[in-house]
Amino acid sequence: MSEFISTMSHNLWLFAMISFVFAAVIGSFLNVVIHRLPVMMKREWQQECNQYLNEYHEALVKPIAKKLEKPIDSYPEKYNLVIPHSACPKCGTHIKPWHNLPILGWLMLKGKCASCKTHISARYPVIELLTGLAIAFLALHFGPTIEFALATTLTFGLIVLTGIDLDEMLLPDQITLPLLWLGLIINLNGTFVSPTDAIIGAAAGYMSLWSVFWGFKLLTGKEGMGYGDFKLLAVFGAWLGWQLLPIIVLLSSLVGAIIGIGLIVTKKINHTNPIPFGPYIAIAGWIAMIWGSSINAWYLSTL
């Protein structure tokens, strides 16, 4: 292992290429998580509601069950991140292994189901490509180090969170909370920042957006963001320390403004449509992980 790490250290481009291929394969799985995790969560919520109604409101079960869009009894099959196997949502044809190859599989199929020719979203190869490029860049930046492995783990989580938030306006605790605790644990020995900076960063990240949320709600009576956004900023506080939180907030606001204005100008949305803020925090936090210290130093030098 030490010989491999030494070889990769002397040939970063080879390491980056290997990392790209590995990450693109993982990106294919991330697509599955983005699609299936919200479905699994909704089924779990429905099961909990059914159990509650059966135990405490038996008299209300039948009239409420009639109003359910999709009763829990209509989900008899096992459903998780592995089962059922990938298949066309229209014709049910199972996807062959070679058609599951990252990026190449979609190109071979020309973006259509091999059986019924239903269009397959270009988002799948795009996520695989972006995952590969992001991890390849991390390989060049960190080299074959523990920091690279940890930054890769965080990046995978951010990609899933971004995809789910764009689809569902949701940042699942199943991903944000493990990333938060992992950030605190890895910094016990000062991997990225000191333990003190990590703990203060996690608390400050959560409390800062929590305060904005309640201030906005008290003034307007509306909710400006979700609790998942607080937790995601706390994740970056735990990983990168409290010092980079102002930069992350500023960058996320800037990225959000640019993308939001672009969507309004192109009439993809109007100004009344809610826009998920999680993807902007994720992008800003990832940028801060790479260049945060340099940006912070430059900003302070201009004051």
From TrEMBL:
GO terms for molecular function: aspartic-type endopeptidase activity; methyltransferase activity. The keyword Hydrolase applies. GO terms for cellular component: plasma membrane. Its EC number is 2.1.1.-, 3.4.23.43. GO terms for biological process: methylation; signal peptide processing. It catalyses: Typically cleaves a -Gly-|-Phe- bond to release an N-terminal, basic peptide of 5-8 residues from type IV prepilin, and then N-methylates the new N-terminal amino group, the methyl donor being S-adenosyl-L-methionine. The chain crosses the membrane at residues 12-34, 148-166, 175-193, 199-220, 232-265, 277-300. The keyword Transmembrane helix applies. It is a multi-pass membrane protein. It is found in: Cell inner membrane; Cell membrane. Residues 21-142 form the Prepilin peptidase A24 N-terminal domain. Residues 154-261 form the Prepilin type IV endopeptidase peptidase domain. InterPro entries: Peptidase_A24A_bac, Prepilin_IV_endopep_pep, Prepilin_pept_A24_N, Prepilin_peptidase/N-MTase. Its main location: membrane. Keywords: Cell inner membrane, Cell membrane, Hydrolase, Membrane, Methyltransferase, Multifunctional enzyme, Protease, S-adenosyl-L-methionine, Transferase, Transmembrane, Transmembrane helix. Plays an essential role in type IV pili and type II pseudopili formation by proteolytically removing the leader sequence from substrate proteins and subsequently monomethylating the alpha-amino group of the newly exposed N-terminal phenylalanine. Belongs to the peptidase A24 family. This is Prepilin leader peptidase/N-methyltransferase. The lineage of its organism: Bacteria, Pseudomonadati, Pseudomonadota, Gammaproteobacteria, Alteromonadales.
